[in-house]
Design goal:
This protein is an alpha/beta fold and about 190 residues long.
């Protein structure tokens, strides 16, 4: 998809604040510092529509980005960040769960994992949660530029093994630095918009 128009429409914490539209939605989930904002910015050819932050755990709402008036990217709060109180984390968890399990416009979830490390407990829980609810998942392994290309296969198979990865799901190696995986990510996303 060639993106010329992208804007943040609303930051929501409850269903009554979600946009009233029938446009398809693609949610993005991942750990706080996995590179979600960089992923969004790379896909929509912007430097900083999605704010990248040196303080992980910054996104505390569901941020709806309208892309080309034809779909929404929904950035959900990053998980697994220690500096957030337990009650806050529970609140976010509920907010994310409510959105993912009840939103009819949701077509797929991009689950971002850091390619340099094995998936965290939360990464695995998120993947299992999506599989449990039969929600299509696109796993995107970010920060590929930080790993020598010759080791990509090793890291990929380690991540897939830990996630108990379903071979029917998309797995994309991605780097916001080199734009590796940008086209593949759009192809996977667009396959769910039909």
């Amino acid at each position: 998809m060639k993106v010329h128009n992208a804007e943040i429409v609303i930051s929501a914490v409850a269903p009554k604040q979600y946009p009233e539209s029938q446009l398809p939605e693609i949610a993005l989930a991942g750990r706080s510092n996995v590179g979600k904002s960089s992923f969004i910015n790379t896909l929509i050819n912007r430097k900083n529509l999605a704010r990248t932050s040196s303080k992980p755990g910054k996104t505390q709402t569901l941020n709806f980005y309208l892309i080309e008036d034809s779909l929404y990217f929904v950035d959900v709060p990053g998980y697994g960040y220690a500096k957030v109180s337990k009650t806050e984390r529970v609140k976010w968890g509920k907010m994310i769960e409510t959105y993912i399990t009840s939103r009819e416009q949701l077509r797929a979830v991009v689950s971002l994992v850091d390619m340099r490390h094995d998936p965290s407990v939360e990464d695995i829980q998120m993947y299992q949660f999506l599989k449990y609810y039969n929600i299509p998942v696109i796993v995107v392994a970010t920060k590929a530029d930080k790993i020598p290309r010759g080791k990509w296969n090793k890291h990929t198979s380690s991540i897939k093994k830990k996630l108990d990865f379903d071979g029917n799901d998309d797995f994309i190696i991605f780097s916001s630095e080199t734009k590796e995986g940008k086209e593949a990510a759009w192809t996977a996303i667009e396959s769910y918009l039909k």
